[in-house]
Fold this protein.
Amino acid sequence: MAKLDAEKVNVYYGDHHIIKDVNLSIQENTVTAFIGPSGCGKSTFLRLLNRMNDYIENFKKTGDILIDGGDIYDKKVRVEDLRKRVGMVFQKPNPFPKSIYENVVYGLRIQGIKDKSKLDAVVENSLKKVALWGEVKDKLQQSALALSGGQQQRLCIARTLAVEPTIILMDEPASALDPISSAKIEDLISELKENFTIIIVTHNMQQASRVSDKTAFFYLGELVEFGDTDQIFTKPVKELTQNYITGRFG
Amino acid sequence: MKQKFDINRFKDNMFKYFGLACTLFGLAVLSIFLINILIEGLGRLNWQFFSSLPSRMPEKSGILICLLGSIWIMVLTAIIAVPLGVASGIFLEEYGKKNKIASFIEINISNLAGVPSIIYGLLALEIFVRILGLGKSLLAGSLTLSLLILPIIIVSTREAIKAVPKSIREASYALGGTKWQTIRFQVLPAASGGLLTGVILAISRAVGESAPLIVIGALLYITTIPTSPMDDFAVMPIQIFNWLSRPQKGFIENATAAIIVLLLITFIMNGLAIYLRNRWQKKIKW
Ligand SMILES: Nc1ncnc2c1ncn2[C@@H]1O[C@H](COP(=O)(O)OP(=O)(O)O)[C@@H](O)[C@H]1O
Ligand SMILES: [Mg+2]
């Protein structure tokens, strides 16, 4: 069974038809890249998967999105529980204006977990997974805002891991970072693949081809082509895909 | 071409000097006023002045009663107005955006912030003093001033909340936070600098008000120290008003000394507000 299934999904913002009849199936423990020119609906589609669009006025969706076989828009689903299973990392690093420690444990604190030794262990584990532990272990109580952009983004990933999701959504997670920090995030994604299902939106073709197993090409709200990354980048079926990846438009 | 350029430059300079002159004029008037008050009143500021009850003899009079009255009013008003104002601000900003009642309330709150304070006094006279039977008590006075500063607190709470970036909320939601958890643990702490600033400025406004209190009848000659919210009271601005209306020179001197104390209280509160704002701005850079 697929980890995630989108069936005939349409999204409207008021009268604007943003996502058009998208069908997509994503397997467990894979990295899927969403590519396409800006404004084509990549972020909108990604944010459907943890219901982050719910807050937008005039937002309307049709079709179904199933995770582990269950409809995530079902009335019985608590959106907070869904988001514990489906984490999200944003384009601009957005640490809370609190200490490094408090950033990592926030997701657990709001679940009511108070046990200090448990929290300490989670902080160490999560920071180790994102290769930040060595850099910050002596200043866990300092403000997260004092970290560099790349460190902040890795902290945001650690914060997401602390909640133990099974899917991680990333919306251009490296686009605001310098090349070295960006490379570190890419390495991290490859490692996380072992235990998580990752979906990443990216503008950067090289990045998509480096980190992902599957690639989905969106254009004007439609899913034009979806397949193995190798195939999409070497012999795409659709001419539109060919034109986009060779940089003829974008 | 060249001439036109020079004319514009001339206008530019003219405006600069005009602006400077206006600023200096304002400052000069204010300084003369302050210096005058300091010269007249400073000599009167001694322990006797702070520790004495009002008296028919100016040199035996003091501000003990009205200073305590102002402190009582400040504390009670804060206890009443801050929770109400902050809660309404949160509600309007975070929850009530879409429905019609909320937008109706919203328009009215902006209007209320501009209503002259004496009108609040009239409203309070009817409701608190007569209908609720609270008399001219500290409680009635505090409720009156709470009405007056509620719109200010609500508006500044909303501004402070609005200034918290969307990315912080999104981060909290994305980690499984409920709306209330997001407000309680992220939005309010991040907004607390602006929030406190607004609250302090509102309370310092309340401490300086006299008109609405005169309307509810707090223009009394009080000689007992207020010990409960139901006691009659006097406040600094009203004591000043009282003294200024006396013919003897000694009372005028008392009034100026009391003005210095009142100014000091407001300066300290405003200073505190500015300090808090700067501190928060420095601490939180997004
Ligand atoms: N909150 C919104 N309200 C209305 N339209 C929106 C909103 N957010 C995005 N859009 C529109 O939806 C389309 C897709 O946006 P988005 O998903 O952000 O594209 P991408 O991430 O691929 O650049 C764009 O045309 C954008 O203008
Ligand atoms: Mg986007």
The pocket of magnesium ion (ligand 2) is lined by residues A 42-43, 171, 201 (CB under 6 Å). Chain A touches chain B at residues 50, 52, 55, 57, 80-81, 83-84, 87-88, 90, 92, 94-98, 106-107, 109-111, 143, 145, 156, 159-160, 163 (CB under 8 Å). The first strand of chain A starts at residue 4 and ends at 13. The domain at 4-245 of chain A is CATH 3.40.50.300 (Rossmann fold).
